Fold:
Amino acid sequence: MYIMRKKQICYNSRKYGGKEQKVHTDIRRGIDETTKNAKIIKESHMEKRTLYKEGTYKKGNLHTHTTWSDGVHTPQETAEHYRSKGYDFLALTDHWVYGIHPELNRDDFLVFPGTELDIELPGRKDHHLVGFGLPETNRIPEHYTFEEERKNGVLTTAERIIEYFGQRGNVTLYGHPYWSKVDSTDIKYLQGMIGMEIYNHGSEFFGNNGNSETYFDHFLFVRNRIFCFATDDAHDIGTHDLGGFIMVKTREFTHRGILDAIRDGSFYASGGPLLHDFYVKDSVAYITCEPCQHIYFQTPHRGDHLFSEEGDCLTEGSFALNGDEEYVRVTIKNSRGEKAWTQPIWLWLF
Ligand SMILES: [Zn+2]
Ligand SMILES: [Zn+2]
Structure:
């Protein structure tokens, strides 16, 4: 049928953070109907997915606060609460204090080390960056409060915080951009993050500003291939908890197994509904999910929408791709307005 996509490399200079920064952009465009390219044609019939084919879904929340910072409940109370509600893992990410909490791990419940650091920007904006890592590779001490770094102005830009976390065995998750009032241009070129919060339940509960779907699209539009997460950002269990989580399909229930699956994109974000599978095969995107009312196939260009007038009746959907989409992702929504979000499947090789 088609496809020859021509590769074009260009270097753009983009403004970021007041400084000119070299950004490497890899652009492919153009469909050449006449040129047969066996490799690409073969690839169009391959299955593409980020969710592992084999594995078990584990539920977790990677952004939570306790009495170690401005939370109401102790780390132990918080961990026990999430475990009792069927969660399999949790990150306790108190503000400016690093928590490892090895005593809270159980055979069926894992606590990830983590923290949340923030910086103020001009114009009443903030960056909030959540860092979490593996107990075995993290190199930030338990209960570390970053005094030295604060005194020396080490952690004063988002780039520096991302680099700091990375050098110490942690990944960076960009927290609640809508709540932080940033512009998408403030964040969409940030490199080195594992993802951003497409949904922050605490922000939604208190300020109706927890949904950051637009920001996620803006990252993807500039081919910044991060993942989307949903979290609680809970400060008080019993009010704004259990509303934002990720489901990680992992081959191994260990800290490393969970984080490896996240790095591979084998997870989805949710504010309630559950997904089963999402993949692209023979240029068709397929989704299976628990009963919902809307299924949105989203690409940088055209998309598609399935809707059930009878309420939560849709359990599967498909969308024929025409070859000019760079990626496809799916959002499902149930009749209560709760959503779940897949990771994007990138269709072009960059
Ligand atoms: Zn925050
Ligand atoms: Zn927070």
